[in-house]
Every structure is written in structure tokens, then in C-alpha cells.
Specification:
Elements (H helix, E strand, L loop, with lengths): L20 H7 L12 H13 L5 E6 L9 H14 L4 E8 L6 H9 L2 E6 L4 H4 L12 H13 L4 E7 L7 H10 L4 E6 L4 E7 L5 E5 L19 H18 L5 E2 H10 L18 E2 L4 E3 L10 E4 L5 H5 L2 H12 L3 H4 L4 H4 L7 E4 L5 E4 L2 H23 L38 H4 L4
Parallel strand pairs: 1-2, 2-3, 3-4, 4-5, 5-8
Antiparallel strand pairs: 6-7, 9-10, 10-11, 12-13
């Protein structure tokens, strides 16, 4: 994951954990105010090392920020030129994440011509999106985002949507899913918002406290309270189940939800495509604008700095003992409660960043979203098994929409009994409610 402009952004999203990195880099003396752009020398070194360091036929670049479009089209034109220079017969793909507010016809023409995949941040309908996604003047951004989205459609730019699921929009899953479909999004990503406030924020030399979010947990107890915008576990579980029920009834093969696609890979025995659901992590490094490389996008803290690309080869940092240890700890630090969980194969303890609560037995290291994932993965189990079986037999998983997509209860299952799908809800509140009418 490449951040060619670091944390610099034209928005001031109230929940953004990355904006405060600007202060961190300044405090460390690693980024003076005039150098928030990846230099031409660093850009070339990165592209060359990234391509040559992977013995695969296709190379994927992921450009993020901050807001990468602040760099202007010329920066990415140069990046594409360098990719062609060092491709050596390999196929190059580019993905760029943006808030969409700075997109113009010129931008969209460039993105379409060079086949960039755009990840557009969109948190739902206007009143939900504007709740936290505001600009530096604290003005709403929804209309500007939708203008950018319309331009991408006109220029046939391939895009997906990235929706941060927070305390408020988590309670509107049906509305958000319908809205994203109406916008023309066919590839949906849902990102749970979980942030903690630090007990002792780092002071800014210019006055007010700036660094307020707690670093990821690491072999210690973490008692910081979650922010008021962090999603509640039960709400997130219900959000995922509600969206899944809509998707499995009518949209399989037409709408691609990243989490669902990743889960299907797990049930097929091929492993999750999302790093948070893999047994180990450590392959998703983050490259900052100044060449610093960190263990992960969520671990851009001094403790997890692996080195600088201009001094240490990227491949060497990626395979360093420090990074390998970082990746293994995801599995070795799982509490016993997780290791004995029936959905561990699907969850794998999720992201270590979120492991700051206690198990029922009092052991530290339980994921804050444990209840959500246990409920969700239990609920989707029969559907995933069926879709996996369809694929193994050479058929389309979309056929599940023409079957009875909800578990049929035993004859003795009453309306107030636990639903046989394992969701933890009463049958009348779950599969009976959603089952096809006879």
C-alpha cells in the first residue's frame, strides 16, 4: 500500500485515524512542511524494486493517502511511464483510493485510458455520508463525491465503493445497500470503524494535543475506550447479516461484496483473500511518502518502522525477521477462547489492531468485534457450504438464489425457538421472517 502524499488530505473526516500521522512525522523530524510528496527518485526506486521483487506475471500497485489526487495527474502519468519502463513483460495493474471530490473530466479520462481501478469512499446516503465526511471548512462533501462518481460513469472508469461502517450508519444496512446499488456500485467493501483514544495523547509542539488515537495493542493490556463513532459489535454483526440476506437472495453473481467473496474462498479451502481473515499477516506493508516502510497501514508507528526504501531494499524489509515475527504473532497471540472457537477457521481473530478486550475467562487479546464475527460466520455457514458445493460441481454459486436460501426448520421448531441457522436470534425474527413465501 503506497501513500505518495502521506496523510495530507483535502478533507477532515472526523473519524480518520490517518490525519494525525502528519503530526507524528513532524514530531519525528521525518517530514518538513514542504515535503509531502514522494520525490521522483523515490518513485522510480519504488516502482523498480516493487516489480523486480515479485516473481509473478501480474503486479498490483495500490495508491492511497491522505488524498492521492492532490498530487495531480502528472505524478501518476510519471508513475505509469516508470511501470512500463520496468515491467519486463509483466502485466501492471493500478488501484487508487480517493474521496472523489477532486475528480475532473481530465482526471477521469486519464484513469479510464490507463485502466485504474478506483476505490471511492462513500458512507451511504447524503445524511449518513455527511455525518463525518466533511472538508477542512467543516462543510459537507456528499454532493462533490456524487459529481465525481457521475464523471467516472461517463468516462467508464472502473470503480468500487468503500463504506466505513460506524456507530450510526451501521443501523441502516438495508438503506445503505440499496443506495450503493442505485449508485451503480457492483463491488462493495465494508470497513468496520474501531478506534481507541489514547490515555496520554502525544503533545504537539505548536500547542493543542494532536495525537489522540491509541496505537495497536501489542502484548499488553489495552484499556482505552473506543471513540463515540466506533461501531458497536452487535450492530456490526446485524449489519453484515442483513446485507448478506439481501445479497444471497437476489444479487449473487451480480454484486460482489468483498467480505462475502473472501469468506467463500475460505469455505472452498483456498483461504481468505482479505488479510484480516488469514491465519498470519505481514504481507500488506505500507510505504510512506518519504520512503519509510511500516509493517502495516494500521501500524504506522515508530515501533513498526522497518526502514527506508532508499537505504534498505524493499524485498529485504518484507522478508526481515522483524516483519516475519510481526506476521506470526497474529496466530501465536490468539487467546485460548479464540483457539477453541468453531468459527476460528473463518475469522482467525480478525485484525490484531482490534484485539484489546478480554475473553469471558479474563484473558486479554480478544477482538473487539468477536461477537459480530461469531454471529455472522455462524449465520452464513449453510449458505457458504452450499455455494462451495455448487462451485465444486462445476455449477454457478448464483444458483443458490433459485433454491431455498434459508434453512428449513425441523418440524418441531417453534416461532420463539432459536433459529436453526445458528444466528442466535429467534426463528420468527430470522429465517422465518426472510423465508420465501409459499
Amino acid at each position: 500500500m503506497t501513500k505518495p502524499i502521506g496523510p495530507i488530505c483535502n478533507l477532515d473526516c472526523r473519524y480518520c485515524f490517518y490525519l494525525e500521522k502528519e503530526e507524528m512525522f513532524r514530531q519525528e523530524g521525518r517530514s518538513p512542511r514542504s515535503s509531502w510528496q514522494m520525490s521522483p527518485q523515490l518513485l522510480e526506486q519504488y516502482i523498480q524494486q516493487y516489480i523486480e521483487g515479485q516473481n509473478v506475471p501480474e503486479i498490483h500497485f495500490a495508491w492511497q493517502g491522505g488524498e492521492p489526487t492532490l498530487l495531480g495527474i502528472s505524478f501518476f502519468q510519471k508513475a505509469v511511464e516508470l511501470q512500463h519502463k520496468y515491467a519486463n513483460g509483466k502485466i501492471i495493474h493500478n488501484a487508487l483510493q480517493t474521496n472523489g471530490t477532486l475528480l475532473t473530466p481530465e482526471w477521469c479520462d486519464f484513469l479510464a485510458q490507463n485502466r485504474f481501478l478506483i476505490g471511492l469512499s462513500l458512507d451511504g446516503p447524503e445524511y449518513l455520508h455527511n455525518m463525518y465526511r466533511v472538508d477542512k471548512a467543516q462543510q459537507n462533501t456528499f454532493d462533490r463525491v456524487m459529481t465525481g462518481l457521475q464523471l467516472m460513469k461517463e468516462f467508464q472508469v472502473e470503480f468500487n465503493t468503500l463504506t466505513v461502517v460506524h456507530r450510526h450508519n451501521a443501523r441502516h444496512p438495508e438503506e445503505i445497500y440499496s443506495f450503493l446499488k442505485e449508485c451503480g456500485s457492483r463491488f462493495l467493501q465494508f470497513i468496520p470503524l474501531v478506534e481507541r483514544r489514547a490515555h496520554s495523547p502525544l503533545p504537539s509542539p505548536d500547542g493543542p494535543l494532536q495525537i489522540q488515537f491509541a496505537p495497536p495493542p501489542h502484548k499488553e493490556r489495552n484499556l482505552e475506550a473506543v471513540t463515540e463513532w466506533s461501531v458497536l459489535p452487535e450492530d456490526y454483526g446485524d449489519f453484515l447479516i442483513t446485507v448478506f440476506n439481501r445479497w444471497v437472495q437476489s444479487d449473487v453473481g451480480e454484486i460482489y461484496v468483498q467480505l462475502f467473496e473472501s469468506a467463500l474462498g475460505t469455505w472452498l479451502g483456498e483461504g481468505a483473500s482479505l488479510c484480516v481473515f488469514r491465519p498470519e499477516c505481514g504481507t500488506a506493508l505500507a510505504l510512506e511518502h518519504n520512503g519509510d516502510v511500516y509493517s502495516c497501514d494500521h501500524y504506522v508507528y515508530p515501533k513498526y518502522r522497518l526502514g527506508n526504501l532508499m537505504h534498505i531494499p524493499l524485498a529485504e524489509m518484507a522478508h526481515s525477521p522483524q516483519q516475519r515475527s510481526f506476521g506470526r504473532e497474529k496466530q501465536t497471540m490468539l487467546p485460548r477462547f479464540c483457539r477453541e472457537c468453531p468459527v476460528l477457521f473463518a475469522c482467525q481473530g480478525e485484525c490484531p489492531k482490534h484485539r484489546f478486550t478480554q475473553t469471558p475467562q479474563g484473558e486479554w487479546g480478544l477482538n473487539y468485534l468477536c461477537a459480530a464475527y461469531k454471529k455472522f460466520f455462524t449465520h452464513i455457514d449453510p449458505f457458504m457450504k452450499r455455494m462451495a458445493a455448487l462451485l465444486r460441481s462445476g455449477r454457478s454459486p448464483a444458483e443458490i438464489m433459485h433454491e431455498h436460501t434459508h434453512m428449513r426448520p425441523a418440524a418441531s421448531t417453534g416461532r420463539n425457538d432459536p433459529c436453526p441457522c445458528g444466528s442466535g436470534q429467534k426463528y420468527k425474527k430470522c429465517c422465518l421472517l426472510n423465508s420465501p413465501k409459499q
